[in-house]
Each structure stands twice: as C-alpha cells, then as structure tokens.
Write a structure and sequence with these properties.
41% helix; binds 6-hydroxymethylpterin-diphosphate; eight-stranded parallel beta sheet; alpha/beta; 8 strands
C-alpha cells in the first residue's frame, strides 16, 4: 500500500501558487478530473486562500466557489473540503465531500455531526498574522501536543476518522518547517495518520541560502516539493497534499514498498 496523494484544487483568485487558474467552474472541474486521471486518491477543494496575509472570504462567496465543484467531482473521487467555516463544511458534505480539511483544527464537532473524516492542522495564529515572528521553545513538541489534544477531543466528540497535520508554513520559519520534517516520526508516533503539505511552499524557495532568501520561484519548486513529499512519506506520513499529482504518485509508488517490513529483504 502506498501513501495517499491528495491533489490540491484551489477555486480561488489569490492562492499562492495557482490563484485564479481554477476560479471558473469548468476549469476547476477539468483540473480535478485531470488529477483523478493522474492518480489522486483525494481531491481537496478550497475556496479561501490560507497563504500568509490572506484576507477571509465571505461565507456566501466561499459556498459559491466550492459547492458546485465538490458536487461535480464527488462521483469520481473522494473529495475533501479545505475550509475553516462550519457552513461551508456542512454544505460541501451535503454535496458529497467525505473529509473536512481544517487548517484551524476547530471543526471536529462539525465533522462528528456530519459523520465524515477530519484533518486537524496546526497553525500559529491566523493566515493574516501567522508569519509575524513565529516563535516556539520546541516546535516539534508544541505542535505534537496541540495535535494530540485536538485529535483526542475529536475522537471523544465521535469523529471516526481523524488525521493530523503539522501545518508546514503556517506560522513557522524555514527552520521550524525543517525541524518538523526532521522529526516527523515524532508526529507519526502520536498514533494518528499524518498528512503533510509542503508542495511549492516558500520555505522550499529559501533552501540553502539563509533563513529568508527566496531563490526558487513558485514554478521552480517541483524538485524540492517532490523531495520533501518523499521525505515525509518515508518518515511515515500516510498522505501528502500536493499540486503536482502525477509525479508525486510516482514517488509514493516507490516509497510504498520501502515502508513495508519485507522491503529490507527485497533487493530486486
Ligand atoms: N496548506 C495549504 C492549504 N491547506 N491543508 C493541510 N491539511 N495542510 C497544508 O499544508 C495546507 C492545507 C496552503 O496551500 P495552498 O492550498 O496551495 O495555498 P492557498 O492557501 O494560498 O490556497
């Protein structure tokens, strides 16, 4: 069994890497179906950017963006909804989504009520403020404790499928992101399936040249995106959230057998 690949579908004008490309319903549906053909296990539909500095979107507008796309994709693939709004989560589930991808880690009772899975992601603050001097005494321990607390509360609230996500790039410096990747096994050891999203994020552009220097533009981050997705999968992530589905499915297919105990003896 290989790790799962969640394809990103941003129905937004302002997402950091693909804003505006899939705002139109037809373009969004076509891209979603392309990701299904490329092997995506889940398509994650979002109508509000959570990039650093992003402004919130009114609920009516987010519903207008997300619900028709979820409804059109749900017969073809498992659909998650990337939202922090209860009304959007509920309407997306009504339209066929079976997973709530929640970067605020606050919607577990909604997921329980709707009878769907839930991803709890760690974020320090809100997208507007999260990159203003993020600081932790021990980022791995603090993120882990937060996720464990939220995940246990979700189980108690009756959510039957709980995922945790360290929230790469959400209120973290380059160093924090790298520490979380280096110590991902500690997040995996919490005992909940782990999702990791590094795809095209700005810390990948800064690698090798000091804390905040950006050297790779968004379009040049595929190699580092694949490297970090592979790194996360080898460290035990059960799912990676990515923009480039076909190449990540190849990586996941290679990693899959490597994670099984028999892989140690399989040399051909
Ligand atoms: N990252 C983004 C959005 N949602 N959800 C989870 N679980 N994990 C992540 O790392 C994650 C997420 C940000 O990426 P993207 O959706 O491409 O950009 P934007 O927020 O600008 O739409």
């Amino acid at each position: 069994m290989r790790p799962l690949v969640m394809g990103v579908l941003n129905v937004t004008p302002d997402s950091f890497s693909d804003g505006g490309r899939y705002l139109d319903f037809e373009a969004a549906l076509a891209h979603g179906l392309d990701m299904v053909a490329a092997g995506a296990d889940i398509v994650d539909v979002g109508g509000e950017s959570s990039r650093p500095g992003a402004d919130p979107v009114p609920v009516e507008e987010e519903l207008r963006r997300v619900v028709p796309v979820v409804g059109a994709l749900a017969p073809h693939v498992r659909v998650s909804v990337d939202t922090v709004k209860p009304a959007v989560a509920e309407a997306a589930v009504e339209a066929g989504a079976t997973l709530v991808n929640d970067v605020s880690a606050s919607l577990s009772t909604v997921a329980a009520r709707c009878g769907v899975g839930w991803v709890a992601m760690h974020m320090a603050g809100t997208p507007r403020t999260m990159q203003d001097r993020p600081r932790y005494d021990d980022v791995v321990a603090e993120v882990g404790a937060f996720l464990l607390d939220r995940a246990r509360a979700a189980l108690d609230a009756g959510v039957h499928e709980v995922w945790v996500d360290p929230g790469i790039g959400f209120g973290k410096t380059v160093s924090h992101n790298l520490q979380l990747l280096h110590h991902l096994s500690e997040i995996v050891a919490l005992g909940f399936p782990v999702v990791v999203g590094t795809s095209r994020k700005s810390f990948l552009g800064a690698l090798g040249t000091g804390p905040d220097a950006v050297v790779a533009s968004v379009g040049d981050r595929l190699p580092a995106s694949l490297a970090t997705a592979t790194w996360a999968m080898l460290a035990g992530a059960a799912m990676v959230r990515v923009h480039d589905v076909a190449s990540t499915v190849q990586a996941a297919t290679l990693v899959g057998p490597a994670r099984l105990p028999i892989a140690a003896g399989a040399r051909s």
